[in-house]
Specification:
Two copies of one chain form a homodimer. With about 325 residues, chain A is of the alpha/beta class. Chain A has three domains: about 5-50, 434 Repressor (Amino-terminal Domain) (Orthogonal Bundle); about 60-160 and about 295-320, 3-Layer(aba) Sandwich (Rossmann fold), CATH 3.40.50.2300; about 160-290, Response regulator (Rossmann fold, 3-Layer(aba) Sandwich), CATH 3.40.50.2300. Chain A has 13 helices and twelve strands. In chain A, the strands form two sheets. The first copy, chain A, has a six-stranded parallel sheet, sandwiched between helices. The first copy, chain A, has a six-stranded mixed sheet with strand order 7-6-8-9-10-12, sandwiched between helices. The radius of gyration of chain A is 25 Å and the shape is elongated. The N and C termini of chain A lie far apart (about 70 Å). The model of chain A has no long low-confidence stretch (mean pLDDT about 90). Chain A binds a DNA duplex (16 and 16 nucleotides) through helix 2 and helix 4.
Chain lengths: ~325, ~325
Amino acid sequence: MTVTIYDVAREAKVSMATVSRVLNGNPNVKPETRKKVKDVIERLNYRPNAVARGLASKKTTTVGVIIPDISNLYYSALARGLDDIAEMYNYQTIITNTENDPEKEKDSFLSLVSKQVDGVVFLGGALNEETLTDIKNSHVPVVICGTSEKDKNLPSVNIDYFEAIKEATAKFLEEGSERIVFVKASFSNQLENHIEEGIKAAYKDLGKSVDDNSLILTADSDYQSGKDIFDQINSHKADVVITMSDETAIGVLHSAMDHDLEIPGDIQVLSCSNTRLVNMVRPQLSSIAMPLYDIGAVGMRLLTKYMNEETVDESNVILPYKIEYRSTTR
Amino acid sequence: MTVTIYDVAREAKVSMATVSRVLNGNPNVKPETRKKVKDVIERLNYRPNAVARGLASKKTTTVGVIIPDISNLYYSALARGLDDIAEMYNYQTIITNTENDPEKEKDSFLSLVSKQVDGVVFLGGALNEETLTDIKNSHVPVVICGTSEKDKNLPSVNIDYFEAIKEATAKFLEEGSERIVFVKASFSNQLENHIEEGIKAAYKDLGKSVDDNSLILTADSDYQSGKDIFDQINSHKADVVITMSDETAIGVLHSAMDHDLEIPGDIQVLSCSNTRLVNMVRPQLSSIAMPLYDIGAVGMRLLTKYMNEETVDESNVILPYKIEYRSTTR
DNA sequence: CTGAAAGCGCTAACAG
DNA sequence: CTGTTAGCGCTTTCAG
């Protein structure tokens, strides 16, 4: 019923080895033979079985992508960059969604490995101890984008979050803001720790202490959570709110406006994601601008190097950032 | 290096067939044997090779998902529904992104088939003649969600777009609106034709003609395209704008506000996607509310039936819709 | 330049 | 309940 390489070989009156050679672009085939085989392939509408191929060659030309939440614009922007480069290098991507669940993250990884992917990239993600162990045991090349793990053993692509947030915080403090609230996303992530450190460093540089004037809250990274957490922010009399997620920032923004606060007069808002959303709300959201697409693209490029066993000079890539002060900051 | 079923068999002093049986939960294994094998599996940290499995069993427990644009909230909402149900039925999903390119759509499908997926679902998509032919030739179960093809040969899940848009249009006309502009997305899609028909039907029912008073434009489905197309809308002196995409609607909205038009006083806006965005802008966007998550979920459920060769009573499922009149309509 | 033959790691009859 | 034996469809030596 399904046509196999064997059928093609028979029809073309060659051996299956030869058919395999033309399939794989092996130059050791006489042009006439090649043409003959190609014609039969066309006529029979033959398509190689990628599964059999994968088993025989131990390569699947497939990379796994593990994402906390595809419906989050932050991650899907990263994914676009990944995808484009993957295509350029003739890899296909299997995207799996963990729904921010570290357990699923681990399962997804194992499942991808059992599918014999040639490599996997984590976009964000918790990367807990267990998962790290599985990665090590798997002997599969892994690159992590937009997250990090403490030992820096894994190749990664990031921006310098610590510096970025420190710069932003210092600016707020220098301009007279005193009560800065930071809203973490509830999916624990090494990055957020760097960010906390950055905030603390900025305070310290100015001889101030974080504890009295700053508050660190946790919220889901959606719009409603931003609206919901506003009460806590407000009761802290915050004059600056920094959130991980754009959606959360927008929720905070709208709640603040509903409480007749002036933006950015009474309260300034800055997010750390810089997704397409920042330009889609009024007032436009100020944000630490990471090169999302590039992070994904560079991550995939890095992975191809590992998959080809090329040498890489820098396995922990840091990309530049900008801080875009739009209309929610002064 | 990698541990195989053969290693497990040897260590457990059984045949590989027995190992295979415990792997697949075959009841014909003595409890003690089962335990013995499981212990060895644990000890050796053995993980079955899904590729070999797929080749031998001709099943991959994997379904392909073809999406025009993952970074579009409309599609990612559908994908979430799909994913949840897929997981429930122990299928994994391979998501591929076509970037709204019919050529890529076709290639993605073929690639998925060569990977021996057990089924594929299209979310949206152009489904041109060529792709349809490939689908027919592939003998792989296919379900399409949020799109349709003219012959209705393929199982599908949709809402009644025609009715929805007719109802909305009729309401606008009855309430005195006269100049309705419809903004299609540029990715041609059978659905949009249904929508056009719905608009025409509404006009006709009231004894009016579409041509004089209605204008049909085409724009990409992003925010900027919405802003850009406003000039055309404005020069038509539209009093109602209906767009496929939420982002486009928001772009139109903001442009209109920048031109000092009152919303919804001077111009009303309605979108057809109802993604999370509708609540994240001020004023909140009125929209035809489709059950996005459910469309995906029902689609995947339908696919499982085909993959199991169960009988299905209704292969073209129509789910209910609501029209949510929020703050951009009167 | 081409063919024969040996697997890749697993499932699935078929015996027993 | 368990083992033996063929493959699944392809790649890849190794000869020639």
